[in-house]
Design brief:
Layout (H helix, E strand, L loop, with lengths): L1 H22 L8 H32 L5 H24 L2 H20 L2 H6 L7 H4 L24
Helix pairs in contact: 1-2, 2-3, 3-4
Length: about 160
């Protein structure tokens, strides 16, 4: 979906660039040619961003592991961008564009949730079972008051 969206974004920006050139539009004294070139460059950069996000998702699926910190943040930013574009697209483009943006947003969020914290550490990904999770005692994490999250055990009176 992101690859198709990247292609669509680049094509829309190229079309907008041609409209700016044909109409000789100008904003705050900028030359129409510079606006046209900037529109194409912006479309290519945004399309590249979406392609990188698609590559992260493909890499995540092939490895069956969640992405590390920076790539996870990149996917979260793509989800936020799709949420904002979906909100803006209702009034500007219509409900079909909104539904498409929400579909892509849902798929990105689903991929992030499917490979949660256990998938990041254990590498079991979405196929993790209860038996794979274990109780953590074998890793040296003793449950109870002296566990790793509660601090040291209280001493006597």
């Amino acid at each position: 979906m992101l690859i198709l969206e990247a292609l669509g974004i680049v094509l829309v920006h190229v079309f907008l660039s041609m409209v700016v050139d044909d109409q000789q539009m100008s904003l705050a004294g900028l030359a129409p040619r510079s606006m046209s070139v900037a529109t194409v460059i912006g479309g290519i950069l945004f399309g590249g961003y979406l392609l990188v996000c698609a590559g992260v998702l493909v890499h995540m699926a092939l490895r069956d592991r969640a992405p590390r910190d920076f790539l996870r943040i990149l996917l979260i930013s793509a989800a936020v961008v799709h949420g904002l574009l979906g909100a803006f697209s209702i009034g500007l483009v219509g409900w079909a564009a909104f539904l498409f943006m929400m579909l892509v947003l849902g798929l990105i969020v689903w991929s992030l949730v499917a490979y949660g914290e256990r998938g990041r550490e254990g590498g079991t990904g979405a196929g993790a079972t209860v038996a794979d999770a274990g109780d953590g005692a074998a890793d040296g994490d003793a449950p109870g008051p002296a566990g790793p999250l509660t601090g040291p055990a209280p001493t006597g009176p």
